[in-house]
Amino acid sequence: MSIERKGFRHLTEGSYPATHVVGKSVDKVDSYALASGAPMYTDDIAARDFPNRLHGKILTSPIANGVITSIDTTAAEALPGVRLVLTWKNTPRTFYTTAGQGWPEPSPYDNQMFTERVRFIGDRVAAVFADSEDIAKQALKLIKVNFKEEPALLDADDAMKPGAPIVHPEDPKGAYDSAHNVAAHLDINVGDVDKALAESEVTISETFQTHYAQHTPMETHTAFAYTDDMGKIVIVSSTQVPWHVRRIVSRILGLSMSKLRVIKPRIGGGFGTKQEILIDDLVAYGTIKTGLPCEIELTRKEEFVSARTRHPMKIDMSIGCDRQGHFRALKMYVLSNTGAYGSHSLTVMSNTGSKTLPLYNKATDVRFFGDAVYTNLPVPGAYRGYGATQGYAALETTIDDLAAKLGMDPIELRKMNMIRVGEGSPIFEALGEGRQGVAQTITSSSLPTLIDLGAKAIGWTEKRGKRTRNGHKVRGVGMSMHMQGSGIPLIDMASASIKLNEDGSYYMTMGATDIGTGSDTILSQMAAEVLGITMDKISVLSSDTDLTPFDVGAYASSTTFVSGGAVVKAAKAVRNQIFSVAAEILGEELDQQLVTAEPKVEYDNDQPDPILSFYHMEDGNVLSVRSGKKVSVSDIAYRAYYEVNQHQIATTQSFVSPHSPPPFAAHFVEVEVDELTGKVEVLKYVAAVDCGVSINPDLVRGQVMGAVANGIGFALTEEYHFGPHGNMTNPSLFDYKILSRRDMPPTEVIVVDNYEPIGPWGAKSVAEIGINGPIPAIGNAIFDATGIRLHRTPYTPDKVLAALRGKSI
Amino acid sequence: MTISITVNTVERSFDIQPGEVLLDVLRREGYLEVKGSCHSGDCGACTVLLDGRPVASCLILAAKADGHAVTTVRGIGDQAHPHVLQQAFVKNGAVQCGYCVPGAITSAKALLDENSDPTEEEIRLAMDSNYCRCSGYEQQVEAVLDAAAQLRKGDTK
After folding, report:
1. Which end of chain A has the lower number of beta carbons within 10 A, N or C?
2. Radius of gyration in angstroms for the set of CA atoms belonging to chain A, rounded to a whole number
């Protein structure tokens, strides 16, 4: 199969089972509703169903570090229309983490709803719920707060130095060494890296610094809560992690989970920032205290200042190899700035090593170590790429310089050292997410093809090293290479339920959290494929803690692989129940062990599912292989529900995997550097990816394009600017520049499907990997064009110009 | 004060507060298809047509719309009767989270009303102020090209 159109090529490698729904770009199930603006997002539902709800506003800290010495809310409370003012004095004092992760939680418990201490400009001081947003805003101004300001820690480099301000003097549970501002620490050793470096014929050591940046989903964090008729608190939230919201809010407020329900409606983008409990606790508590529906919708400015960002990292990268370029030693030290709170501090840092270093598995001696340090700056969290983006920035830049040092083509150097099918890496086992990992062997990879196709698409051989010049503008090409994961092995669990309706259609409920990615669609495709139906015969409800089964949520590139695994298992189990009734109707023998055996996710050509030698699903019918007779699934349902041996045909299945098969990518870019202005223009970008089987190729392309667009913004234009006191000075979409339609360079996405034998219908993940490429690929292209090497992002004209001038001096 | 606006061809009158912007009035009155995001005119999510011209409804004082016609994305087409543009967005995989899509389709409608055969560059220019964080824009641009081609074909029939 091969689809080719401008900007998109979809190819396949190898052979795999024929499918009729999987692999097709079917319409996204919610897309007509979304394209006509249906009221499906959190604030739409609040406005439609609760016009008289209270509106919440949060008073935030104007100082980066200090203690609240007094807080007087009487004037605010006296303002007509104000219903509730919350501060540290009248809220639960539970310590928790805002990071919406699995259990036990790997991030330190360094948060409280409100505290006497403020730790960054934007930290919570108080909250008001009032009849209108305007009244709430007025009330914020009436809250009198006195602070005792303390020296602020505004540079991660200073965090561990003696005498540095201590951001968390309360020594939070789970922080590694809060007396030295270390939220998390890691040190993973395979072999003896220092010895290997000392003995290597060629070594290279570089330091790379990445910057503060933000997700900027079009929909800001929004949540509302209300009390249902049975007295239950219902939170409707723009979240990626409804079950973690319920667990964490239930802990903070001391509320039984039986009294708390979390619903995720349609979400206006997440990219990681909504893997965080930022306002859910407030709206729930507001509703408990007032008895009224309460909503908070962050403004764009609040989103920038108070919500989550990407961990800036300083990475020391050393590589040792022989003169031919065979890697022996990889050493990576990470200093991660986790801002005022340690949300995702340990796990993002883990991934900086665990998702990057195994790509070059020929190195025998590896050390990955790091410190995630507190500062009095905005709080990073989960962000698409999750540490791997920063790790690849350093690793792929250093490899490029190493290739120059060796006089080699950087592609050849990478090919010589990259991981291949059938191989593993000791790093997989040594380093997981915040704890020991799980051994992995690569079971599918199109990486060699991705490199070849990408190189051809950009014109690597013709353009590299040519430095084509047009006046003061000079061109160059660069590339980089990546892997990610597909969920967290043995941690991420998903479940799905499917039941059969009498007319032969199905209803599927699942925990999987569609945040705009299209997971409701592709998971329905997977079920439809097993059940032999078209997409119109299945409807889906996802992400409601009362109505659907559990799922950890939308993060760690887990949904396609992990939630997909649960869906395939559930579809097979329901199919087998249908076969069982078909056997009854047809008067044929069917071993019940085949019906009740736990279904497998993976497809094994040599050992096909044994029940399929008896029955097949075909167009809404069950076909008996033995007799050639057919019976309709609708007849089966009517018989089972109303006539003989009545029972419901339904199941709930869970999936957790010891595997996390990595997707692979090779990115290529051609840039033009203006030596007069320092401006870097991307002329063409090529992103080649292997995500296993593309369940829905158009949605795969959209994921890759979106990740690349975000990545190019991160590389060239998006950046937090800070004033001298740690205040972000550009908190608007005018001053924080994400790529617009005209900024987006011509981009070609090349997808090379390669059946992943352990994935649901051969699929791996795709959402995150695409964001890892732009920084190193563009930096390497700037180097090819000009010979200057930038070690600090973003590659803005001032840095390029400074480097160019430094070079000519 | 009371203003009267023709919204999606229906004449309506609204009581508004001084200083209220069109976005807030429309959403309060149930036109929830108009999505707010930046509230500073930077992102285009809240785009509506004012007398056929695309505007950021978060920047327009509601009072300025008094006596004028406003078209929201639902006035262009709804789920039961989607406009060619909405169908093209769906068929080209251009709807991801969807939050920007009502505004993007509204800007595209204004473009196609003026220019039935836009180039890719003209589409990018006309929709440049409609940010999207999910798609990287390519499939949305293709959707507009696709819709324009379909509309032209329809015209010649």
Report:
1. C
2. 27
Q: Is residue A553's pLDDT more than 80?
A: yes
How does pLDDT run across A180-210, given as a tens digit for each residue? 999 999 999 999 999 999 999 999 999 999 9
Alpha-carbon torsion (B37, B39, B40, B45), positive or negative: positive
CB proximity list for A145: less than 8 A, separation 6 or greater: A59, A68, A70, A71, A72, A125, A126
- Which residue is closest to A7 within chain B, CA to CA? B138
Helix (H, G, I), strand (E, B) or coil at A382: coil
Spatial separation of the C-alpha atoms in residues A788 and A805, rounded to whole Å: 10
**CB contact (8 A) between residue A28 and residue B93:** yes
Give me the residues of chain B with pLDDT under 70, please.
Answer: 155-157
State how far the alpha carbon of A480 is from the alpha carbons of A128, A336, A375, A776, A780, in Å. 49, 23, 31, 6, 8
Q: What is the pLDDT of residues A466-521, one digit of tens each?
A: 999 999 999 999 999 999 999 999 999 999 999 999 999 999 999 999 999 999 99
**pLDDT, tens digit, for every residue of A257-297?**
999 999 999 999 999 999 999 999 999 999 999 999 999 99
- Cα distance between residue A675 and residue A223, in whole Å: 48
Q: Which of B77, B132, B140 has its CB closest to that of A36?
A: B77
- A238 lies within 8 A of chain B by CB: no
Angle at B81 between CA B76 and CA B87, to 5 degrees: 75
Residue matched to tokens 């016609």 = B69
Of A557, A775, A751, the closest CA to residue A662 belongs to A557
Q: Which residue of A has its CA nearest to B76?
A: A36
Distance, in Å, from the CA atom of A718 to the CA atom of A736, rounded to the nearest integer, reads 6
Give the closest residue to A275 by CA, choosing from A541, A562, A556, A507.
A556
Which among A35, A517, A733 has the least Cβ separation from residue B86?
A: A35
Per the rule left: phi > 0, alpha: psi between -120 and 50, beta: everything else, A286 is alpha
What is the rounded CA–CA span in Å between residue A772 and residue A611?
43
